[in-house]
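dumping these here so i dont lose them again. two proteins, back to back, each one seq then structure tokens. dont judge the mess
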Amino acid sequence: MNTATSATAEVPCTDALPGAALGGPVSHAVSRVARLHRIAAGKLLKGLGLYPGQELLMMQLWDSGPVRQSELIRTLDLDPSTVTKMLQRLEQTGHVRRRPDPDDRRAVLVEATAESCALHTAVRDAWCSLEEHTLAGLESDERTELTRLLAKVEANLCQETQGCPERGGPTC
């Protein structure tokens, strides 16, 4: 009998934390939940022709109107090349338009197009669906408490990282 095979067969399936995560069970849980949430969001967004993150960029444009590309980069807290790639894809699909800023020809203004209005409704519906899927089985008071606790965690992380992205998003 192969000892490697028998050793593997004796390892039970457990919900135990990896050894390196023993000092941070909440951080490990948040990491797992964030990963799964992004995967679920990606599945919903794929049906809309979007990649995860593009909907956040669109939400910003829908709420703010035309903004400088540099402002989008700052607000979304993403690498400039990532935002540029997102904008290129969204421009190709007709959801955004870029043009020179009339107040500063060196700057670029980005705006949502009229064609993106249908996408706006679809993104709102997708996020509402994601919300219901994510919180299934939680009572109203539990949802409120989870939101309150996550806001505290977010505030802690914002202090630690010395900066926070804008809050907000669609409501169902």
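---- next one ----
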Amino acid sequence: MESVRSDAAARAGDSALTVKILVAGGFGVGKTTLVSAVSEIRPLRTEEALTEKSIGIDDTTAVSSKTTTTVAMDFGRITLPNGLVLFVFGTPGQDRFWFMWDELAKGALGAVVLVDTRRLADCFASVDYFERRGVPFIIGVNRFDGAGRHTPDQVRDALDLSPDIPVIDCDVRDREDAKRVLIALVEHIMRTMSGSRQAVTY
């Protein structure tokens, strides 16, 4: 799918169908990178430099080159060929900023939970958050140098997920790869909503 915004969508303005989605996960897992990679507008970032005060709080062992952290949210927008506009919000990864999550989650139809297989435990809180609230989500396994390769079933088992939750291998630095993850989420949301309607019918 191409994400170039069509003239029709541009003319439609606020009348275009919009969907709010979240990108969540642990510290340094690639949330800001994904939002920046796919956004057709200049992304909004609320990043601050890591300082000595974060020593012992933010574990940068696996992401030693990371020098900033999201303290509120990231925001970007992407328009799909069918005119669907995705408002993409990246959540902060550290525990001390989780008070933002409830506000960011209002009105969200689904979420991508990014994981680093070297630090799988870091995504448990995100998975629990969306499971408790019944928000459809998928797993994006971000490729990091030095991280072992695992099959989707292995990751799903490690996270104790139900078989219907998609697990997508990706490199969020690549626009097409990141876009593929968002499309997979939209498809999962549609399947989930369709299943809910059928359940009510029966």
